[in-house]
Amino acid sequence: MIMSRARILDPSILKTICKFIQAPLKIEYPVRVNNWLKGTFDYFIPAQQKLLVIEAKNADLARGFTQLAVELIALDQWTDSKVPMLYGTVTTGDTWKFGIFERQEKIVHKDMNTYAVPSDLELVLSALFGISLS
Protein backbone atom coordinates (compact mmCIF):
# COMPACT_ATOMS: atom_id res chain seq x y z
CA MET A 1 0.00 0.00 0.00
CA ILE A 2 1.41 3.38 -1.00
CA MET A 3 0.72 6.16 1.45
CA SER A 4 1.13 9.85 0.61
CA ARG A 5 3.32 12.02 2.82
CA ALA A 6 0.29 14.01 3.92
CA ARG A 7 -1.20 10.85 5.42
CA ILE A 8 1.62 10.57 8.02
CA LEU A 9 -0.42 12.99 10.08
CA ASP A 10 -3.95 12.13 11.16
CA PRO A 11 -5.86 15.03 9.59
CA SER A 12 -8.66 14.81 12.16
CA ILE A 13 -6.75 17.25 14.43
CA LEU A 14 -6.44 19.74 11.60
CA LYS A 15 -10.04 19.24 10.50
CA THR A 16 -11.20 19.96 14.06
CA ILE A 17 -9.14 23.16 14.18
CA CYS A 18 -10.47 24.23 10.77
CA LYS A 19 -14.04 23.55 11.81
CA PHE A 20 -13.56 25.61 14.97
CA ILE A 21 -11.99 28.59 13.15
CA GLN A 22 -14.28 28.18 10.12
CA ALA A 23 -11.44 27.85 7.61
CA PRO A 24 -10.90 25.27 4.87
CA LEU A 25 -8.26 22.55 5.14
CA LYS A 26 -6.51 22.05 1.83
CA ILE A 27 -4.70 18.72 1.51
CA GLU A 28 -1.87 18.23 -1.01
CA TYR A 29 -2.45 21.76 -2.29
CA PRO A 30 -0.39 22.60 -5.41
CA VAL A 31 1.38 25.96 -5.67
CA ARG A 32 3.35 27.24 -8.66
CA VAL A 33 5.18 30.56 -8.58
CA ASN A 34 7.41 29.83 -11.58
CA ASN A 35 9.28 26.90 -13.15
CA TRP A 36 11.82 26.83 -10.30
CA LEU A 37 9.55 27.58 -7.36
CA LYS A 38 6.68 25.14 -7.33
CA GLY A 39 5.44 22.28 -5.24
CA THR A 40 2.65 20.93 -3.11
CA PHE A 41 1.79 21.89 0.45
CA ASP A 42 0.91 18.74 2.39
CA TYR A 43 -1.63 20.78 4.36
CA PHE A 44 -2.61 24.43 3.92
CA ILE A 45 -4.96 26.41 6.15
CA PRO A 46 -5.90 29.81 4.73
CA ALA A 47 -7.49 31.35 7.83
CA GLN A 48 -8.90 34.89 7.66
CA GLN A 49 -5.81 36.76 8.84
CA LYS A 50 -3.20 33.96 8.83
CA LEU A 51 -1.80 31.43 6.41
CA LEU A 52 -0.45 28.16 7.80
CA VAL A 53 1.53 25.52 5.89
CA ILE A 54 2.03 22.07 7.40
CA GLU A 55 4.71 19.81 5.98
CA ALA A 56 4.44 16.11 6.87
CA LYS A 57 7.64 14.08 6.91
CA ASN A 58 8.55 10.47 7.65
CA ALA A 59 11.51 11.25 9.91
CA ASP A 60 13.96 14.01 8.93
CA LEU A 61 12.73 17.23 10.54
CA ALA A 62 15.86 19.18 9.50
CA ARG A 63 15.30 18.49 5.79
CA GLY A 64 11.60 18.95 6.33
CA PHE A 65 12.15 22.39 7.83
CA THR A 66 14.30 23.41 4.87
CA GLN A 67 11.46 22.35 2.57
CA LEU A 68 8.97 24.22 4.76
CA ALA A 69 11.11 27.39 4.55
CA VAL A 70 11.12 27.17 0.74
CA GLU A 71 7.35 26.64 0.76
CA LEU A 72 6.85 29.73 2.94
CA ILE A 73 8.99 31.77 0.53
CA ALA A 74 6.93 30.43 -2.38
CA LEU A 75 3.71 31.24 -0.52
CA ASP A 76 4.97 34.79 0.03
CA GLN A 77 5.40 35.24 -3.72
CA TRP A 78 2.25 33.35 -4.66
CA THR A 79 -0.37 34.93 -2.41
CA ASP A 80 -1.91 38.39 -2.61
CA SER A 81 -2.63 38.30 1.12
CA LYS A 82 -1.26 41.27 3.04
CA VAL A 83 -0.60 39.37 6.28
CA PRO A 84 2.83 40.36 7.65
CA MET A 85 3.88 36.84 8.67
CA LEU A 86 3.40 33.36 7.26
CA TYR A 87 3.39 30.41 9.61
CA GLY A 88 4.48 26.86 9.12
CA THR A 89 5.22 23.64 10.90
CA VAL A 90 6.94 20.43 9.96
CA THR A 91 5.78 17.25 11.62
CA THR A 92 6.25 13.52 11.67
CA GLY A 93 2.86 13.26 13.34
CA ASP A 94 4.35 12.76 16.77
CA THR A 95 7.09 15.44 16.58
CA TRP A 96 6.44 19.07 15.62
CA LYS A 97 8.68 22.08 14.85
CA PHE A 98 7.27 25.54 14.07
CA GLY A 99 8.55 28.43 11.97
CA ILE A 100 7.61 31.93 10.89
CA PHE A 101 8.42 33.84 7.69
CA GLU A 102 8.56 37.62 8.16
CA ARG A 103 7.46 38.87 4.79
CA GLN A 104 8.85 42.41 4.89
CA GLU A 105 12.27 41.36 6.16
CA LYS A 106 12.28 38.12 4.09
CA ILE A 107 13.52 36.12 7.09
CA VAL A 108 12.54 32.61 8.21
CA HIS A 109 12.68 32.02 11.97
CA LYS A 110 12.78 28.47 13.33
CA ASP A 111 11.47 27.69 16.81
CA MET A 112 14.38 26.06 18.59
CA ASN A 113 11.99 23.81 20.51
CA THR A 114 10.64 20.53 19.22
CA TYR A 115 7.29 19.35 20.53
CA ALA A 116 6.38 15.70 21.06
CA VAL A 117 2.88 14.30 20.88
CA PRO A 118 1.23 13.14 23.05
CA SER A 119 3.31 14.70 25.88
CA ASP A 120 3.25 18.21 24.35
CA LEU A 121 -0.13 17.89 22.63
CA GLU A 122 -1.58 20.82 24.55
CA LEU A 123 1.30 23.06 23.41
CA VAL A 124 0.97 21.92 19.78
CA LEU A 125 -2.77 22.52 19.77
CA SER A 126 -2.32 25.89 21.50
CA ALA A 127 0.19 26.90 18.82
CA LEU A 128 -2.07 25.75 15.97
CA PHE A 129 -5.13 27.50 17.44
CA GLY A 130 -3.05 30.60 18.29
CA ILE A 131 -1.73 30.88 14.76
CA SER A 132 -5.18 30.37 13.29
CA LEU A 133 -7.05 32.72 15.60
CA SER A 134 -4.63 35.58 16.26
Description of the molecule:
The protein has 134 residues and is α+β, with helices and mostly antiparallel strands. It has a single domain, classed as tt1808, chain A (Alpha-Beta Complex). It contains three helices and seven strands, in the order αβββαββββα. The protein has helices at residues 12-21, 61-78, 121-133; strands at residues 26-32, 38-46, 51-56, 85-91, 95-102, 107-110, 115-116. Strands 1, 2, 3, 4, 5, 6 and 7 form a seven-stranded mixed sheet that branches. The longest helix is centred in the middle third of the chain and has 18 residues, at 61-78. The protein is globular. It starts with 11 loop residues before the first helix and ends with a helix. Residues 1-7 have low confidence and may be disordered.
- Series of secondary-structure elements, N-terminal to C-terminal: HEEEHEEEEH
- Report the uncertain regions: 1-7
Question: What is the second-level CATH architecture?
Answer: Alpha-Beta Complex
Domain count: the total is 1
Give the CA-based shape: globular
Please name the defining characteristics of this protein.
single chain; 134 residues; alpha+beta; tt1808, chain A; 7-stranded mixed sheet; 3 helices; 32% strand
Give a brief description.
This protein is α+β, with helices and mostly antiparallel strands.
Q: What's the structural blueprint in terms of helices and strands?
A:
Elements lengths: L11 H10 L4 E7 L5 E9 L4 E6 L4 H18 L6 E7 L3 E8 L4 E4 L4 E2 L4 H13 L1
Parallel strand pairs: 3-4
Antiparallel strand pairs: 1-2, 2-3, 4-5, 5-6, 5-7
